[in-house]
TrEMBL record:
This is enoyl-CoA hydratase. It comes from Actinomadura rubrisoli. GO terms for molecular function: enoyl-CoA hydratase activity. Belongs to the enoyl-CoA hydratase/isomerase family. It catalyses: a (3S)-3-hydroxyacyl-CoA = a (2E)-enoyl-CoA + H2O; a 4-saturated-(3S)-3-hydroxyacyl-CoA = a (3E)-enoyl-CoA + H2O. It holds the Pfam family ECH_1. InterPro entries: ClpP/crotonase-like_dom_sf (IPR029045), Enoyl-CoA_hyd/isom_CS (IPR018376), Enoyl-CoA_hydra/iso (IPR001753), Enoyl-CoA_hydra_C (IPR014748). Its EC number is 4.2.1.17. The keyword Membrane does not apply. Keywords: Lyase. The keyword Zinc does not apply. One of its GO terms (biological process) is fatty acid beta-oxidation.
Length: 257
């Protein structure tokens, strides 16, 4: 079996989509991504995750259109339910995640990138959801995650018109976090991952969970969850280490306890 997803383990783990030239999402790639994400979720060493595509031409150009004929009449059963599960695995990781978008992220590729906390694009990157041009709709989170990131009006423009945006516009509307020179997306993501990995891991998990809740709860409920989260964080040894390191004028050495 051809390996379509490679896992580079460590504190800053990398998940590499390797289905050249455009790293399209096939059913087999999705199954292998599920296995990789399970491994990441159970690896206590991991402090940050980078997702990127092999080859430098594209992060991911979307679904494998060659599979469409076999999906006629049963796309949910044979494709979308699995993608929903796997994309949710990525979105639910407790550690921060970064999509390093070298080249284009289109259709299912952008849907995958939207599951990450940060998206770093290059100046030549194009990001879009062209599904309606093919007579289909985004089915792996695009209609739900995109408006939560860029708002309803811009999401309607991107999805209903199906036209991609360039990196500058993506940055202006908040679709990407940073834009870097061509060829530098992965290195920029690695630098960001190292910064994230240096933060207190318990505080990072709590903060990420609270931020996710902010779009799903009322302000008062969110503030109550925030108080509970702060109580949990202040019960850790990391709080004492962080304060001591600040007073000692040295980098903290967080243990995650």
């Amino acid at each position: 079996m051809t390996a379509l997803v490679h896992l580079v383990g460590g504190e800053c783990t990398e998940i590499v989509l390797d289905n050249p030239p455009m790293n399209v999402v096939s059913r087999e790639l999705t199954r292998q991504l599920r296995t990789a994400l399970r491994a990441v979720a159970h690896d206590t060493r991991v402090r940050a995750v980078i997702v990127h595509g092999a080859g430098g031409r594209a992060f991911c150009a979307g679904s494998d259109i060659a599979e469409f004929r076999t999906l006629h009449g049963r796309v949910a059963e044979d494709k979308l339910l699995l993608e929903r599960l796997v994309y949710r695995q990525l979105a639910a990781l407790e550690v921060p995640t970064i999509a390093a978008i070298e080249g284009h992220a289109l259709g299912g590729g952008l849907e995958l990138a939207l599951c990450c906390d940060f998206r770093i694009a290059t100046r030549r990157s194009k990001l879009g959801m062209p599904e309606l041009k093919l007579g289909v709709t985004p089915g792996s989170g695009g209609t739900q995650r995109l408006p939560r990131v860029i708002g309803q009006a811009r999401a309607k423009e991107m999805i209903l018109l199906g036209e991609p945006v360039d990196a500058a516009e993506a940055l202006a509307i908040g679709l990407v976090t940073r834009v870097v020179d061509d060829g530098d997306a992965v290195d920029a993501a690695r630098r960001m991952a190292e910064t994230l990995a240096a933060r207190g891991p318990v505080a990072m998990r709590v903060a990420k969970r609270l931020l996710a809740l902010s779009t799903e709860t009322s302000l008062e409920d969110g503030l109550a969850h925030e108080l509970d989260g702060s109580e949990a964080v202040f019960a850790t040894d990391d709080v004492l280490e962080g304060a001591k390191a600040f007073l000692d004028k040295r980098p903290p050495r967080f243990s995650g306890r």
